[in-house]
């Protein structure tokens, strides 16, 4: 848990240098993977509620980073798209994230990374099993 908190604190500080919070960066970077998705799809991809995404999108639209576009034939949903400035910030954030990973995990030998990956997958599976009825 301490390692998680340390890593989160470090990446949060780095992402804040470009004026974004982690939730804002998560949303923008998710849209770099697939634009034109609805807020519901975005909420699923981010593992948050639709209400959380709605407020976050509102703030990013207001900041000129995301735009809502009408979906033909659906009056209730909108497709989410990055503005040019939103894409620029997302790409800067992704570069910051890549640099951070390179300066940490990137210093491990391939064999160490493979073992770490194996252990994390095992830990994840054990945690899932602990949640099962």
Automatic annotation (TrEMBL):
<feature type="domain" description="HTH marR-type">
    <location>
        <begin position="1"/>
        <end position="128"/>
    </location>
</feature>
<dbReference type="GO" id="GO:0003677">
    <property type="term" value="F:DNA binding"/>
</dbReference>
<dbReference type="InterPro" id="IPR000835">
    <property type="entry name" value="HTH_MarR-typ"/>
</dbReference>
<keyword id="KW-0238">DNA-binding</keyword>
<dbReference type="Pfam" id="PF01047">
    <property type="entry name" value="MarR"/>
</dbReference>
<dbReference type="GO" id="GO:0003700">
    <property type="term" value="F:DNA-binding transcription factor activity"/>
</dbReference>
<dbReference type="InterPro" id="IPR039422">
    <property type="entry name" value="MarR/SlyA-like"/>
</dbReference>
<dbReference type="GO" id="GO:0006950">
    <property type="term" value="P:response to stress"/>
</dbReference>
<dbReference type="InterPro" id="IPR036388">
    <property type="entry name" value="WH-like_DNA-bd_sf"/>
</dbReference>
<protein>
    <submittedName>
        <fullName>MarR family transcriptional regulator</fullName>
    </submittedName>
</protein>
<keyword id="KW-0804">Transcription</keyword>
<dbReference type="InterPro" id="IPR023187">
    <property type="entry name" value="Tscrpt_reg_MarR-type_CS"/>
</dbReference>
<dbReference type="InterPro" id="IPR036390">
    <property type="entry name" value="WH_DNA-bd_sf"/>
</dbReference>
<keyword id="KW-0805">Transcription regulation</keyword>
């Amino acid at each position: 848990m301490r390692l998680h908190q340390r890593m989160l604190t470090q990446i949060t500080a780095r992402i804040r240098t470009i004026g974004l919070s982690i939730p804002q960066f998560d949303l923008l970077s998710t849209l770099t993977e697939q634009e034109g998705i609805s807020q519901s799809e975005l909420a699923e991809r981010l593992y948050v509620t639709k209400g959380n995404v709605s407020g976050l999108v509102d703030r990013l639209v207001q900041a000129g980073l995301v735009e809502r576009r009408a979906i033909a034939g659906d009056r209730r949903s909108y497709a989410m798209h990055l503005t040019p400035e939103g894409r620029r910030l997302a790409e800067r954030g992704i570069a910051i994230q890549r640099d951070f990973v390179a300066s940490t995990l990137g210093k491990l030998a391939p064999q160490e990374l493979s073992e770490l990956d194996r252990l994390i997958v095992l830990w994840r599976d054990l945690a899932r099993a602990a949640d099962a009825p």
